[in-house]
Amino acid sequence: MGRDLALLIPEIAVLLAAVSALIAEILRRPRASLALAMLGLFVATGLTIRLVGTDTTVFGGSFRIDALSIWAKLILLPATMLSLLLASAEVRGTVREGTVYSLLCLATVGALILAGAGDMMFLVLGLLLTSLATFALVAYPDDDPATEAAMKYFVFGSVAGAVMIFGLTYWFGAAGSTMIADLEGTEAIPLAVIFGLVAVIVGLGYKASLVPFHFWVPDAYEGGPLSVAAFLSVVPKVGALFALTQVFRDLPSESGGPAVIAGLAVLSMTYGYLAALVQDNVVRLLAYSSIAQSGYFLLGIVALGESSFALPSIIFFAAAYAAMNLGAFAVIAAVGRTLNDFNGLGRAQPLVGVAMVLFLLSLVGIPPLAGFVGKFLLFAAAIHAQFTWLAVVAILNSVLALAVYMRIIVPMYRQEEVPHDAASIWIDIVTLTALLATVTIGLAAQFFFVKSMA
Amino acid sequence: MSDLVLPIVFPLLAAAAILLLRRGMVIWALVGVALSLAASLKLLGAVASGDSATLLLPGLPDLPLRLTAEPLTALLSVVVAAVATCVLIYSVGYMKRESGLPRFFAVMSLFVAAMQALVLAGDWVLVLAAWELIGLCSYLLIGFWFQRPEAANAASRAFLYTRSADLGLYIAIFTLMGAAGTSEIAATLNVDGDTAVAAGLLLLLAIMGKSAQIPLQDWLMRAMAGPTPVSALLHSATLVAAGAILLIRVAPLLTPEVLLAIGLVGGITTVAAGLIALAERDLKRLLAASTASQYGLMLIAVGAGVPLAALLHLLAHAAIKSGLFLAAGEFQHARGGTALERLRGVGRVRPWTFFGFALAALALVGAPPLSGFFSKDAVIAAALSAPSVAWLAPLALAGTLLTGAYLARALRLLWHEREEGENENRSVAGARWMGLGVWALVIPAVFLGLTFGPIEALLGLPGPGDHGTTAMLFGLLAAAAGLALGWLVPASRLLGPFHPWAQSGLVIAGGLSFWIGRPAMAIAYGCQRLERGLYATVLSVGRGGFFIARGCGRVERGLYAVVLGTGRASLAVAHLVRVGDERRIDGLIFALVASVRGWGDRARVLQSGWIHHSLAISAVVTAVTLIILLSASLSF
What we know:
A: mainly alpha, two-stranded antiparallel sheet, B: mainly alpha, 27 helices, NU5C-like (chain B), transmembrane (chain B)
């Protein structure tokens, strides 16, 4: 018990951060609330580093402390810190400011639980925790678009969550236990396993914003605060994708799961980029692009168990994606939400312009930026696992991606300029951090991955 | 042999220094590229004395990056560095009056570094990374004058075209890695069977994109919107050359089927691009079309199974074409544009540059004893010795003839007697730097033929066979005929009805953007509509839910009314019972009237709309009913 709790200290630290941020808000000390949340996340990150290389489980195998869950912490905790900074620039001075910080931390706890889930109940718990916290976050601005977006998000979320719980009962029936690992040994009635699998894909697919469970995404991103959109596009999504990975590692291979996932990958990538091609609102454009990027993760999930690249590629792409996507959202926070706001940005603010170009090129997958390495590994994994056709579709989609992101880059270097107010220093810090990560992660791939992942 | 990284590292450091310091960029860039040249030469020396080496660098997990020094890679590295040095020297003059110089020199240096990485790569992952970086750098450089819409569009177009074709490279690389189990280029070249055919065709796609082969030629002409030194570098030693270089390096992999495809693509391109060049109205675009045509000749040589001939022509072309471009850039400065009409007679104003231009042009046509004479002979001899000679030889000769025709046309226009009052001449700032750059390239363009012997010996590749004399004869005839035709007959008459089509770049029905771009946008809008439709469906399902909920509400209200009615009735009964006991019958009637009115008022109060209110009422009524029923049962 003591050992189990010791291994869970990072999660507990985040939880404490959430609670103390809330208490500070109750005492009407929003600054203290932010500081406590940041401190908690920072400590949690620090405490995780000593765990790198561990591969064990706690609470009788129901929660996993393995490469996935440890890297989830190392990726998502800093990502949450950056989201907090973005949020502080956006909601400063509003009523109930501290609740935002507290809810962001709580949603992160949910994402971390998802990433380490070894038990069906943890899947449910993680999904609900992230969902409930983010419903409230999307509704935070308290105006009509936000309320409508939150309502839609809520309806989708409740239905998807209910379907997942319903399907999990079949797994429980088939395996006789709630442990995901027990599924492998079942001489199961395959029908029950398939039924449960479909339901889990619905539940996690909604959170990971895969087509066709993505309908809430553009509205929620556009209606809610921008910082929440940035957070939603990274933390819960990566949590859900890692949970999907945990599930697929233990799935009996004859379940037909990889084929379904491959189909979803094609749908998500193609649909996401095509829909992004006709958006005029940059937030919606990035929302669709984030749907497409989720599809790329699935290339790694498809290859699980078939290719040694599968797990590293998923983790690496998650790190790259977190950096470049948060960076792009930070620039939007500084510049504006429509394509017209980007007119002449590259000339008026050359550094912000260069940063945005680098983020977008990394999203396309241009070397030596982080996105290239991530996508390269994902392609390699899929091809190793005999899913060459899927890799071809993914590469074709990268061309489409270039067209999508060029729609932002091209106006940035046009003649006319739109005047911009100076952005908050915190946003600049987020941009800079994300930029640093986007550039260095790609170059340093070998150094920090080989030892720790295996 | 850690010297291997030096040709890459020096320009890279120069780029970093320029970006960080933002001053002294000319010196940094020149020093960087000169050191790169020195390192390449040292490498070539080491390789020539028999060393060859591979250097492993840390890269992706399980996929180390490899650099290889062997005769071919070292030689190409020298070519890249040498051309880049000349072009950068020239740029100092050409870009004198421009702003944004740090960006220009930094990206040029990065470009050189990426190209060095590509030629020295011994590993597919590095090839891929360098390949993409080259695409990115050319995007940045073609779009250097991004304020001009045509430059920005040209840059985007070049990037999209070449990147679409990169698809082939990605899949080819993964296929080869899957078949060979390693990412080392040398090891993957032993693959055979269907895998080799598939990989070869996919590589061909990527090469067609980069080397602007038909039908992917359109972007190259538009890319002329960029600065002239960029065009020179792009066409001779970097972007466009990357395609041919890759093809030469993977030559051992190519199977007969793939060779035939390569030869045909090259042959068609050399003729079609030659026709386009003949019809062009702009000097730089003419040179661009000529580049596509010359790379077509190289593809013919590879397709004929003699990569050595392609390499020799690549070397000669690198010096010649960059020299031509640099001279064109000086003419551009002298007349403020590159339209041939505007340049009419400029040769008499700047005779030295024109002399250099003419020498380079003659070399490209294949006049003896200039370098192009030897390389073109090799190509034609290769075509004559190929199994598919019936296809390749006529196409190669037609390409040669067209080369003579369009260059003669250009020379004639440039040397034309100037008419009074037209086309002001301007003084050219930085002409000395430019002249230095031009002649530094024209001299090798003339004498490079002398080095071909040693190069053949160094590489140890098979030569083009024993058709040397025939090839020379045919080649000279074609070149002379071309020169005569181009000088004497106007292009519009030569091309006849094809002239307008060739002038528009032989674009088939609106080009690639029509065949790919429009459908993609149509699908995208379709998706948008689909999404709206789905959304409406979801919404209507939701409405259905609401409808059911409303129905439920109605049922509930009905039940509520029933409960209320029951309560009311029982109260009334109780009342009646009590009144009947205590009062007379007329009092009973009054009481009944009063109580009905009172309940009416109270019923209005009941519909206040507050949920807690109504819940409380329900609870109270239920309780009251219970009590009454209980008391009634007790009293009987």
